[in-house]
Structures are given as structure tokens and as C-alpha cells.
Amino acid sequence: MSGSALIMYETSNDGVTLRAALAGELDLADADEVRDNLAAAASASAYRFLQIDVSAVTLIDSYALGALVSVRNASAAAGVTVTLSNPSAPVLRAIQVTGLSEVFGLPPLPSGDS
Q1: What does pTM read for this prediction?
Q2: Which of 47, 51, 83, 90 is positioned for an S-S bond with 18, CB 3.0–4.6 A?
């Protein structure tokens, strides 16, 4: 199953994980679509986990980060756990700088970096 040009979906063999892959520049122009699409996929499926691969994201702004937090919160309300996997350097840096590492299960910003 495929989503928009920015999101591709793949079901897993384990029967409990839905995988999504985001690609390109995620910013204000795409944030609402990404949020709505991922949240709908998480709440409409029988899957318990939504794993979002962000390795192909080349830019992410605060609106798109907010969209991912919204997806996480909406999914949690539906009993679905959201994780980010394979974060690209821009995604990892943005998440670390904003203090969202723990929310997405990623390593925190190393001491002395800011």
C-alpha cells in the first residue's frame, strides 16, 4: 500500500507492525498532510506498532516535528506505539536539539553539543 509522494507504507511479516517511510523535505507545506496521513493509517489498522523510517528525510522544520509528535499522541490514544527509525542527520539533530529524543526513543544530544 502506498501513500502520498512523501509517505510509503509496507506491512510487516510479524502482523503487528506497520512501516512507513518518509522522504524529502518535510516542512510547513507538508506537515498537515504527513500528520493526517500517518495518524489515519495508525488508527485504521489492526497493527500495534507504527515504525516510521526517516532515513530519506533531507530537511525537517518545527511544523513537521510537531506533526510527528501529533502522530505519536494520536496513535498512542489508539493503542499504537510510534517509533522513528534510521534518522537522517537533519532529523536526528532536530529531534535532539528540541529535546524530543526520549519521546521517539532516539539518543539524546551529546553533552557539550548545542
Answers
A1: 0.87
A2: 47
